[in-house]
Design the sequence.
């Protein structure tokens, strides 16, 4: 039996891409015949360097070149085409990319549903408001609403928050499978002893508008002047970084907030090992694997009280307003202890790659039977 794993953006190296790698590796380690479908050549050494995990040597890859920019209307139709072609080359087709369920998909891993209550109505003509993007994706709605037999599918969600959103729109049966984080980060965390004198708050995120990074300078301005901030991540939007730097300068915080766009994985881990606090600014984060990674390295997470984050971050570390976030950061910096860091590390163990693999194979075997 040939099993295909569909992830065109594998070389982007984000949380969603690591889920695809973890699924492919899990199947290969259980002696399954696995093929990865991507839009570029796979670089196993780059995967190892970024994620800290090797791609299993028995996994084959099939390249399906992409000619359109991501997140556009053309890309949506291209995804339909490439996924359909990929399915024709395997017996079981696992889609970790599209965030939807096509008729030919066997297993779908949903990071957040493309079709949800915010954009579409439950009845025909399905569109909550007739914008061009929604009109262009009407075939997608027709697929999911009318052409898919869900009793023959396995739909996986990255959190109960995401699973609830899927059910609200489609009434599908959904299984929750939390995403994993790298075992190498877990190992580093167990060997890391924090410097109690380092008052550093770190955020790891793509530099893009929907991450709400503009909140960080306003939070920082309300914390003690001895607290430093670092923002590290892939530069997806140069305009976002430029605007952030402008705000930091306007608030006279250039000596307290540093930026690390496109920094290496080594630099990210170096900063997380130093930091006492991890600050997450996005509201309604679907899960937040970067939060778990930071927790594994002993960072106390300060996150918004919403989304999948509330399923694993203790209430004492969740905030509603920017003022509350600033207050909690100052308090946790001043009252930081090794014991608190170790407790947070223990919570992150739930999301180990070994736990993910065991749960996935349980669901996969049940589905195939």
Sequence:
């Amino acid at each position: 039996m040939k099993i295909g794993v569909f992830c065109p953006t594998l070389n982007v190296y984000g949380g969603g891409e690591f889920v695809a790698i973890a699924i492919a590796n899990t199947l290969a380690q259980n002696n399954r015949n696995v093929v990865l479908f991507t839009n570029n050549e796979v670089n196993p050494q780059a995967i190892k360097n970024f994620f800290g995990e090797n791609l299993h040597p028995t996994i084959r890859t099939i390249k399906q070149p992409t000619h359109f920019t991501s997140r556009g209307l053309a890309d949506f139709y291209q995804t339909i085409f490439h996924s359909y072609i990929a399915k024709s080359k395997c017996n079981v087709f696992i889609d970790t990319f599209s965030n939807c369920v096509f008729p030919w998909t066997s297993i779908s891993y949903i990071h957040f549903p493309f079709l949800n209550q915010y954009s579409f109505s439950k009845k025909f003509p399905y569109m909550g408001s007739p914008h061009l993007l929604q009109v262009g994706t009407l075939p997608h709605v027709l697929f999911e609403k009318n052409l898919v037999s869900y009793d023959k599918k396995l739909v996986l969600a990255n959190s109960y928050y995401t699973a609830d959103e899927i059910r609200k729109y489609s009434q599908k049966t959904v299984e929750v499978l939390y995403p994993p984080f790298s075992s190498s980060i877990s190992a580093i965390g167990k060997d890391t002893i924090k410097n109690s004198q380092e008052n550093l708050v770190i955020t790891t995120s793509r530099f893009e508008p929907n991450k709400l990074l503009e909140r960080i300078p306003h939070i920082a301005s309300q914390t003690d002047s001895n607290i430093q901030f670092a923002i590290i991540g892939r530069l997806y939007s140069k305009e976002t970084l430029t605007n952030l730097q402008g705000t930091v300068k306007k608030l006279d915080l250039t000596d307290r907030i540093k930026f690390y766009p496109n920094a290496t994985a080594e630099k990210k881990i170096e900063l997380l090992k130093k930091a006492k606090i991890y600050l997450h600014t996005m509201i309604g984060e679907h899960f937040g694997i970067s939060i778990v990674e930071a927790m594994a390295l002993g960072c106390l997470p300060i996150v918004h009280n919403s989304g999948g984050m509330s399923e694993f971050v203790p209430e004492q570390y969740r905030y509603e307003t920017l003022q509350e976030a600033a207050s909690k950061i100052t308090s946790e910096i001043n009252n930081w202890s090794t014991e608190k860091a170790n407790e947070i590390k223990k919570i992150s163990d739930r999301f180990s790659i070994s736990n993910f693999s065991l749960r996935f194979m349980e669901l996969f075997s049940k589905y195939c039977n």
